[in-house]
Amino acid sequence: MTGKAANRWSTIWLVTVLAFLYVPMLSVVLGSLANTRYMQFPHEVWTFDAYRNALADYTTGMLHSTSFSIAGMVVLLAALVGTAGALAFARYDWRGRHLYQRFLLLPVFFPQSVLGLALLLTLTAAGITPTWKTAAFAHLVWVVPIVTLVISIRLYDYDPRQEEAAIDLGASRWQVFRYITLPVIAPGVLSGSLFAFLLSWSNLPLSIFTTGADTTLPEWLFTRTATNYSPLVPAVAVIATLVSAVVIGVIALLWLVLRRR
Fold first, then answer.
1. Which of 40, 89, 90, 173 is 20 to 30 A distant from 144 in Cα terms?
2. CA-to-CA dists, residue 119 to 78, 145, 161, 196, angstroms
């Protein structure tokens, strides 16, 4: 196969993969522009009524607020716990480290629905009423191991002799972490935080068991799609996607600004 033919097939393959990923998202956008309860294409009437109704509906704001509250708490705690966990996972050699490395990954391999049910039964037995806060805890159980692994990748290429040299020059442990270790793992912390946000923001299996009377965006979208579908459902989905894209874009922009400083 010649070079041109290989490039042509590579391009075709890339376009096919991108179409497979993004055409379903396009169908959601098209579905939000209809004025009928049932999905059909082409639409007889194209309208933005679903978006106007979604933006005017109090429920839309409450759904975003609940999901943001959960995702924000998960990002903050997962970054803190994941950073400490990554240092124990990949930086320091201590007794029990290998056992810790094995048990850390267990929640990732559990089916999320089983994990959610187990947490719900545990909360019920403990007399704790499920709310969005318990959902945040459930997300942390599943997300923290992933964030820990993402940050650990940065530490495997880290030379600890940099810290030893700083200590020999009189730096305190906090100064060593602040000016040497943290800048090295900062890209991993940012990547892990983005993973935490996206995994929490879009989580359904854990949320459906642990939110109680509160409702997240994925729960509402699932319920309305199954029981009472209307163009309002894809419209809210599109708005949620745009909101998450804006959040990620703002974080990426802030990261670029901080790196230049």
1. 173
2. 18, 17, 42, 19
The third-level CATH classification (topology) of the domain covering 57-229 is: MetI-like fold (1.10.3720)
Q: What was the pLDDT predicted at 40?
A: 67
For 127, left (φ over 0), alpha (ψ -120 to 50), or beta? left
The Cα–Cα gap between 168 and 159 comes to 15
Q: What averages of pLDDT result for each successive group of 10 residues across the chain (261 residues)?
A: 68 84 80 73 76 85 90 92 84 77 80 88 89 92 90 80 78 82 84 89 90 89 84 87 85 76 63
CA dihedral over 180, 186, 144, 209, signed as positive or negative: positive
Cα(230)–Cα(247) distance, integer angstroms = 27
CA contacts within 13 A on the Cβ side of 37: 5
pTM greater than the 0.70 cutoff: yes
Q: Identify the pLDDT of residue 2.
A: 61
pLDDT number for residue 5: 66
pLDDT at 140: 92
